[in-house]
């Protein structure tokens, strides 16, 4: 074997080793409240860094385009079986490299170019892969959008029905990236049936809660369910497709490979399988329970400090703080919190027209819950966020000691090495 293949990273490429070490330190000393962030287990990290990174296959178990070992086929079949067990589905595709590619595969299987889809507007909390301008789904298909009630911030299902009757979409998409409430998937399914549409649910931001029964499971109601395997689910970066229909499952498989992807990432599929296994353990159920308690505690603490919650509460792993009453845009607050090593992001609230001037601040709790933080820590974090917001309103710098308080929390709930 070539000698360089035996050398550790620090010896072979110290520049990259240094950047990785610096990133590890940054993550350790940062309160990550970006809702898509989380930390995988050591077992997942071991699987994703295994010899499976050297495996090249194409196609599916038992029907590969390139030869594969029995071990690889058994691994992917196990990942599929575990995914089906976790979410109560008959079929699963564990190969998508991302949630967006899972969404693209679903659309490719269900739609023809030019067909109409109906999804949540990006300004109301939807995701860009659901037909936003400039994306593949927005360019290939005719996207129509539903919003939320401007007063309550909630989905108006009567409006969704009216829009579906008017536009006659071939596909209706439910699911969002910044909508903090439970979704009535049964009602969406009824609307889809009335207008002859298929229903796709993207549950990327709530998959962990769905897995443990803390959020409604869309699998029984939707034709297709997609998700990422990271975010709240706490697995490796990648996507997943679920369905219950045999013929549709075959179309979804073909849409993903060879339609969109070639070689699957077998080392990531191995880590997904580990994550699915973790999701069936009692400790994971306790984690999901704490996630929901933390989200509600954070929201209540913000409300007590004069920062309202969009919709008045949350049923998901994040809070959308509504800054309109403060007369404050979210973007400068995001930047101020970033300097304190608190990560979060701006999202629109009803009436906003773009992200730069949005008044919503999305604060996720999945990552801090993984670190072991609970309601008491969420109260401290709410104080840091509220004090920083008030300082901005007053034209003053962030409060003295805020950065030290962040670092103290991070050190007290340190990440595993």
In CATH's first tier, which class of the largest domain applies?
Alpha Beta
Mean pLDDT: 96
CATH topology of the largest domain: Aspartate Aminotransferase, domain 2
Helix content: 40-55%
**Class by SSE composition:** alpha/beta
**Which strand order do you get reading across the main beta sheet?**
4-10-9-8-7-5-6
Beta-strand portion reads 5-15%
Number of domains: 2
How many strands appear in the DSSP assignment? 15
Largest sheet data? 7 strands, mixed
N-to-C span: 30 Å
Radius of gyration: 22 Å
Global shape? globular
Task: Name the CATH homologous superfamily of the largest domain.
Answer: Type I PLP-dependent aspartate aminotransferase-like (Major domain)
Enumerate how many helices there are, as a single number. 16
What are the defining features of this structure?
single chain; 417 residues; alpha/beta; Aspartate Aminotransferase, domain 2; Aspartate Aminotransferase, domain 1; 2 domains; seven-stranded mixed beta sheet; four-stranded antiparallel beta sheet; 16 helices; 43% helix; 13% strand
Overview of this protein structure:
This protein has helices at residues 9-12, 14-28, 42-48, 70-87, 99-110, 136-140, 157-167, 185-195, 207-211, 246-256, 266-279, 282-304, 330-339, 366-370, 375-393, 402-412, and strands spanning 31-32, 59-60, 63-64, 91-93, 116-120, 142-146, 171-174, 198-202, 224-228, 239-243, 308-309, 318-322, 342-343, 345-347, 360-364. By secondary structure, the chain is α/β, with parallel strands linked by helices. It has two domains: 48-279, Aspartate Aminotransferase, domain 2 (3-Layer(aba) Sandwich), CATH 3.40.640; 282-412, Aspartate Aminotransferase, domain 1 (Alpha-Beta Complex), CATH 3.90.1150.10. The strands form four sheets. A seven-stranded mixed β-sheet has the order 4-10-9-8-7-5-6, with helices on both faces. Helix 9 (207-211) links the parallel strand 8 and strand 9 (224-228). The mean pLDDT is 96.
């Amino acid at each position: 074997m070539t000698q360089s293949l035996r050398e550790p990273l620090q010896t072979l490429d110290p520049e990259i080793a240094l950047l990785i070490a610096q990133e590890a330190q940054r993550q350790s000393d940062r309160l990550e409240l970006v809702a898509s962030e989380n930390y995988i287990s050591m077992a997942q990290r071991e699987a994703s860094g295994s010899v499976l990174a050297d495996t090249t296959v194409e196609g599916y178990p038992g029907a590969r385009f390139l030869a594969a070992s029995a071990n690889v086929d058994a691994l992917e079949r196990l990942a599929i079986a575990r995914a089906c067990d976790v979410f109560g589905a008959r079929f699963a595709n564990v190969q998508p490299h991302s949630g967006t590619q899972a969404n693209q595969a679903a659309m490719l299987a269900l739609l023809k170019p030019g067909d109409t889809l109906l999804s949540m507007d990006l300004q109301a909390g939807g995701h860009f892969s659901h037909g936003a301008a400039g994306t593949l789904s927005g360019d290939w298909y005719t996207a129509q959008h539903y919003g939320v009630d401007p007063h309550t911030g909630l989905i108006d299902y009567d409006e969704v029905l009216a829009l579906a009757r008017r536009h006659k979409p071939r596909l209706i998409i439910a699911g969002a990236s910044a909508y903090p409430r439970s979704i009535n998937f049964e009602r969406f399914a009824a609307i889809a049936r009335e207008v002859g549409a298929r229903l796709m649910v993207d549950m990327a931001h709530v998959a962990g809660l769905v897995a443990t029964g803390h959020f409604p499971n869309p699998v029984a109601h939707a034709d297709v369910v997609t998700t990422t395997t990271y975010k709240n689910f706490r697995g490796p970066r990648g996507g997943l497709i679920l369905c219950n229909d045999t013929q549709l499952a075959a179309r979804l498989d073909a849409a993903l490979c060879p339609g969109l992807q070639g070689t699957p990432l077998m080392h990531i599929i191995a880590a997904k399988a580990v994550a699915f296994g973790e999701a069936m353990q009692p400790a994971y159920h306790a984690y999901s329970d704490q996630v929901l308690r933390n989200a509600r505690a954070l929201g209540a603490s913000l409300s007590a400090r004069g920062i309202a919650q969009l919709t008045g509460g949350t049923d998901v792993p994040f809070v959308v703080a509504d800054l309109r009453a403060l007369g404050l845009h979210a973007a400068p607050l995001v930047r101020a919190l970033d300097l304190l090593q608190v990560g979060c992001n701006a999202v629109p609230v009803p009436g906003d027209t773009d992200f730069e001037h949005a008044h919503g601040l999305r604060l996720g709790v999945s990552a801090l819950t993984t670190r072991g933080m609970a309601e008491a820590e969420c109260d401290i974090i709410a104080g840091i966020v509220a004090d920083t917001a008030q300082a901005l309103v007053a034209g003053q710098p962030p409060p003295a000691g805020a950065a030290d308080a962040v670092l103290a929390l991070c050190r007290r709930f340190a990440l595993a090495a």
